[in-house]
Amino acid sequence: MTGRRKRQLANGVQVLLILIAIFVMLVPIIWIFMAAFKNHIDVFQLKLFFKPTLKNFPAVFESPYSLGHKLMNSTLVALVTVLLAIPIATMAAYSFSRFRLTGETTMLVTILATQFVPAVVIILPFFVMFRDLGLLDTRVGLILVNLSIVMPFAIWMIKGFIDGIPLDTEEAAMVDGSSRLQVIRNIVLPMAAPGLLTAGIFCFIIAWNEFLFALILTNKNAVTLPIGLALFKAEEGDLWNLLSAAGIIIMVPMFVLALIIRRYFVQGMTMGAVR
């Protein structure tokens, strides 16, 4: 076999593996999308052609499911988490990047190490603490928990972007009379904008999809969308048509967000990985 045929064979195998991977990833999404427009009885039949219905989507917002309240909880918790995490993480990342701090390496390693602690290990302390503080089943409690989850990741990612900003640019601005805050506002933040946006996207996704803490720390008032999916049960079993409709509602914001900021998202992932 010649070298050319070997390369063609290798390329063919690579394309085949990619197509298999795409198929494996898309099949569940296609199934959920189709099931969301089926009647309950049609979900259990392998039909490619069926009479679609839209009644599943308004049904998930009615009693006893009340998905609208859970949608509001998830949206508020995720947005507030991002609005608090990004400014705080940016200040911490800038400090680690531009100043020599005592125990800097230890602090950075400790921040990173918190990401490797299993959630089941710390859920009980959070539960006891929130019970004593009266924060169980509240949005404030979920926001605090999500901040503890996303902050280490945001600090490390944003620090990588700030490290890539030339220090000479800031020094030149300060020589011209700019204060440190003006340098941060006029130079650092615009240049690090792709990193801030990328970190914000990931923080939003993590807070939006968070399940375990919301399951343990909420009961009624602050229940989020992922927990609400467990409510779609009846005497005849799981209501897959309603569950799929709710699943699409959960996925749509992620798809829309990815489409809107895809250019910054790819740029942020690439630059952050290199730095």
CATH homologous superfamily grouping of the largest domain: MetI-like
CATH architecture designation of the largest domain: Orthogonal Bundle
Beta-strand level of the residues, as a percent range? under 5%
**Major sheet: size, sense and barrel closure?**
2 strands, antiparallel
Termini, distance in Å?
42 Å
Low-confidence stretches are: none
Specify the helix fraction band.
Answer: over 70%
How many separate domains?
A: 2
Number of strands: 2
Write the element-wise H/E pattern from the N-terminal end onward: HHHHHHHHHHHHEEHH
Number of helices: 14
Q: Mind sketching the topology for me?
A:
Elements: H1 3-35, H2 40-43, H3 56-59, H4 67-98, H5 104-113, H6 119-133, H7 139-163, H8 167-175, H9 180-191, H10 193-209, H11 212-217, H12 225-228, E1 233-234, E2 237-238, H13 240-260, H14 262-274
Antiparallel strand pairs: 1-2
